[in-house]
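Page 47, continued from p. 46.
Same chain as before, 421 aa.
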Amino acid sequence: MTALWRINLWVTLFFALLALLGAALLLRQGSADVQREMRAAETMIEYLQVAALRDPASLHGGLAGNLRHVRVTPVPAQGVVPPAAESALQQWLAAHLLPDAGPALQLQLDDGQRLQIALDPADEIEEVWDSLLQLLLLSLLAWLVSLLSIAWAVRRGLRVLDELLAGLAQVSQGQLDVRLVAHRMPEARSLAGRFNAMATTLQQVQADNAELTQALMALQEQERARLGQTLHDDLGQYLTGIRAQASLLQIVAEQPEAVRSTAHSLEGHCEHLQNGFRALIRDLYPVVLERLELDAALQLLTQDWQSAQGIRCRLLLGEALPDLPLPSKAHLYRLVQEALTNVARHAQASEVRIRLQYQGRRLRLLVRDNGRGAQMPQRAGIGLRSISERVRSLGGVLRLHSRPGAGWLLCLSIPVGRASQ
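Result:
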């Protein structure tokens, strides 16, 4: 059953109940009115009976025909007065409004004519019947007007709903450029506005994801190129030098000074090669997290970054930090690493402060610099989007604050239970 049919059914039941209630009240009031009029008519019948016994001629002529609620009828030879012609509904209504009409009175006049005097509630019953018909017709008219109004309004709403469903179908097929037309109804305008805002947001997110994917692919190629160049330049050159010096050792084996000089040079080459490989491995994967806790790994990271960038970095660690699984530690480590990278590239800062503490079953990380800052809100770049994705994977909340000349403040809150310790 459609929504329009359900609404029509409820409206029909409401008007039927309202009409029945109105009819019951009308019948109750009509019954009281009819009985009051009939009591007055009974008094008139008593008067007519006395008048007929005193002066039978008073019941002849126009008097009996003009009486209200009293019927004076000649009795035929067979002694039975036929009942008045009434419909079944009128008979039921008469029985309901006047359940006890009283017996008819028959009089024998001096001229031998017999008359029957009885109550006649036909006028009152007809008035009640007319009122009932007016009530039913008025209810029927109101019901029809309500159904037409509801059908008109619902069809307008359904037209908006059909447009919304069509728009959602297009969005589900990837057509994010669809927009709804704003109608005159406030609700339709609000619905169209929210749908259009949703479609715009999805379109922007799709564009951001495409941009992020392209940036990640470019970064992957850059990492591969850097890795290949590092292996070629450092590994290739140092291995070539080591091989040449190893051959030289065979030639100058009898010359102690030359052997010592060559051995010293070999040691320097090996040290440079080892440092290069350590830096390369550290950039590719933070191996220190497998041997050190998060606080010690962050201390080592900030020290190396400060030495490499020449920017002061202050690390404040809270007490009783919880133990985290390796993936979570890696995400937090990369968060700090990417935040420091953004500071080095864009902030133009001379100092960075990092605070990590555990409060209220949440791990809170703050990274603040004293750089140039920016006017908020600002569209996030690749670095901030990467940080946001890492925060989302940890189930945390990220907030960014900045203003021109006041640097950036990165606030991160991650839910952590003691059960992870």
